[in-house]
Design goal:
alpha+beta, six-stranded antiparallel beta sheet, 6 strands, 37% strand
Length: 140
């Protein structure tokens, strides 16, 4: 069963800590052709900027982690208990004054583990601002 954007928004609202919800993430799309992806929007906010005016790495890491949960849910047809095992991120350019599109794609999803590749770009740009990988343990 395909996960709808509305169902993904409900997963976001029901399963994340209040401070993650404070990021203002919204679901742009779920489920690539093979059902293993999600695109979230991290809206620009001065509250998320670090010294110098760029979007903070902490906000980008939280957005990548959250997008991975939605991608896993898309591949499973709904939310399942899971936890982050590993996440790595490389910051390639600053994002200033622009929303960020967070694209999570599962590269492998098995019975107990899921692996994801996440790219983050400033809206309107093709240049990658940050790239992350994540590994999740599927608990249910």
């Amino acid at each position: 069963m395909a996960l709808t954007p509305a169902a993904a928004e409900k997963i976001l609202a029901d399963n994340f800590a209040p401070w993650v919800l404070d990021l203002g993430l919204t679901i742009e799309s779920v489920a690539s052709a093979d059902g293993s992806g999600a695109v979230l929007r991290l809206p620009w906010s001065d509250r998320l900027a670090r010294e110098g005016g760029g979007l903070s790495g902490q906000a980008l890491m939280a957005a990548a982690d959250t997008a991975t949960v939605i991608a896993v849910a898309a591949s499973r047809g709904g939310f399942v208990p899971m936890t982050t095992v590993q996440q790595s991120i490389t910051f390639q350019r600053a994002v200033v004054g622009s929303d960020v599109l967070v694209r999570a794609r599962l590269t492998k999803s098995g019975k107990r583990m899921a692996f994801a590749d996440i790219t983050m770009t400033a809206e309107g740009s093709e240049e990658i601002a940050a790239h992350a990988t994540a590994v999740y343990a599927l608990l249910g």
